[in-house]
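Posting this for the archive.
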Amino acid sequence: MSDQKQKRILVVDDEPDVTALITYNLRGKGYAVEAVNDPNQSVGVARSFLPDLVILDVMMPDLSGIQICRMLRADPKLKAVPVIFLTAKAEESDRIQGFEVGADDYVCKPFSPKELMMRVQSILRRSSEGGSPEMKLIVCGGVELDGERHEVKIHGTPIELTATEFKLLRLLMERRGRVQTREHLLINVWNYETEIETRTVDTHVRRLREKLGPEADWIETIRGVGYRFAERRSALT
């Protein structure tokens, strides 16, 4: 657990009772925590604190969590920091919107502190694993994934991926030609062994395809099952 003591987590929620509860549980796990109740201060605090993870409420006055997440993703120093949305908005469309602006996970209020801690540990674990030096260079067509540099290039141009997107692409490329079910991806990318909305996978795959641009059709949808990184691409010459 010693590595957790070095992890910094920023909690942003306009309800002091909520930030106090989350802060108590996170510090109990050994994390360094900064709590912010004024959303207008959140990005400034994030720039000075440089967190490893942000827990962000959606429904706040002046600035919503969606707006703050967009600001984080636009900041060169913060764009790769994982974000967990914490909110009372439970509709599927709300969750999808959260993922589309760059969130890595979504926990609905009222929440279980135990479940939230599990999500935090899972995201931080996969963020740490993302840059494992033993990972090899994988090239498929115009897609080049360099595990040692934690870098993906499309036709030689680097693209920005979150830790989750990088791990998802790496797994698909490493298992090229083999179908990966949504449940399998949730366990191996998100480290979730409990039931969770499989639309999480679909949304992240859609975002990943958008970032792959002209190489997006390497990722094939296997209807009703999951996804596969193609063996070959007929459009390539």
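The domain at 137-229 is CATH 1.10.10.10 (Arc Repressor Mutant, subunit A). The longest strand covers residues 8-12.
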